[in-house]
Amino acid sequence: MKRYLHLLIIAAICATACKKLDLTTPDKLSTKVFWKTEGDADLALTGLYATLYGPNGQVSVFAPMWWDSFSDNSFTQNNQGGAQQSLTAGLTSTVGGFPTSNDQSLYVLCYKGIAASNSFLANVEKVLSGDKLNQYKGEAYFIRAFHYFMLAQTYGNVPLVTEDPLAITDFKQKVAKSPRAEILKLIEADLDQAISGLPAAKYTSGHVVKASAQGMKVRVLMFEKKFPEAAALAKTIIDDGLFALNSTYDGNFYKPDQRSSPEIMFSIQFQAPSVPHEFAITTVIIGSGYKDLQGTQDMIDEYEANDPRKTMSFFFPGDTPAQGWPFPGTVGTPGVNNWTKGYYPAKKWLDPKLINPQPGMLDDQDYVWLRYADIKLMYAEAQNEVAGPDASVYQQVNEVRARPGVNMPVLPAGLSQADMRERIRHERRVEFALEGLRYFDLRRWGIAQQTLNGFVQNPLTPNLKTIYRSQFEYWPLPQIEVDRNAPVLIQNEGY
Prior knowledge:
Layout: H1 2-16, H2 38-50, E1 74-75, H3 83-88, H4 97-100, H5 106-123, H6 130-154, H7 180-197, H8 210-223, H9 227-240, H10 257-260, E2 264-268, H11 281-286, E3 294-295, H12 297-302, H13 309-313, E4 344-345, E5 367-371, H14 372-387, H15 391-401, H16 417-431, H17 438-444, H18 448-452, H19 479-484
Antiparallel strand pairs: 1-3, 2-5, 3-4
Domain SusD-like N-terminal: 103-209
Family: Belongs to the SusD family.
InterPro entries: SusD-like_N, SusD_RagB_dom, TPR-like_helical_dom_sf
């Protein structure tokens, strides 16, 4: 870990304060030439949000759609993020991709974001005070909590680092893991700090607000199975009335609707041509030679009859431009242009204005990580675990089902707690298909192994089954990091 803590802060500050490059060599950059004005705080905060973009490459670990290919929802034929190899060959400490890549793994990129957050929090008081200081610190606490929560959900026990990397003098020091409980305790504390410092406002500018932190804390509490606390906090968000379900379901996933959606509570924002995706996600999702996000038959079968979210999220044989097929003059056909037979190419996240996607095109869909619909369904899930399927549980699930443009019928009365639990799990799967939540839901519900071990992704190849062993509940640490910090940093058990 010590390899990149210092380097990231140098990179973040240099990238946002290039005026210093002619004065100080990168290895000498420090607080002596930065943190002098309020403008430096603005630049550094921009650098913090930039840690959520991820590195150069076709896909980013912070793009939620690719996480579904680690689950039973979707398939990536070109092994984006290492998902297909992880499912069919099993996780190993050298599998690469999101789990263990030397430079693009979740582990490395989250610690870069943590390092940037630590440096920001250690220095921002030098140039700010009052409400602005509290808000900026709240944003930094949120970003640090986001990174640490991604680590806690996947790797489990990881190093806990809170000091300013620019203040570290011994870069040969090796770092051990801390228990996941300690990581989660810090995450909750960081989100509490964020909640106290951020404005109680709608989410409009890309800067997180109070409800962003509250919603993320609800997600953390659900992971910890702290259901009474999760239900109470989710209800607070609902009662505050700042957010609502968007008038169009699919408008949450492309511009311009994303920027006016009253449902989005936290997203990683892009804006072409100045800040587009480094490689167009439209091309990777649906372009010829790619089609790297294809729904499984099991995912398609999960939808109820006449649920319009199915055709808003996936393409089907015979689709034409009238159904959003982005190749004018053609008809969607399995087996043609990399449409793998037995799967269904993704439609969600595609901007219908973009046609004939090719490498080099510019697109800028925001990566949505938290929607108000999730708050409503997390409330329903937590309240059902606390008190069973009372009227408030029915209300929140039914309002998501009846959202504008979806209009699914209400749930039947008289469901048991166990029946309601399954209904909520179903609703989460279809509402958030291709949004990066399914894999984490299966793990926190404790059913990942029974669901994914032996799962047949494609009914046309029934002998090809996925692998999910008990040790996969904790991902392997990147082996290069274990070796660099040996013998202090111990590889997770089973790897």
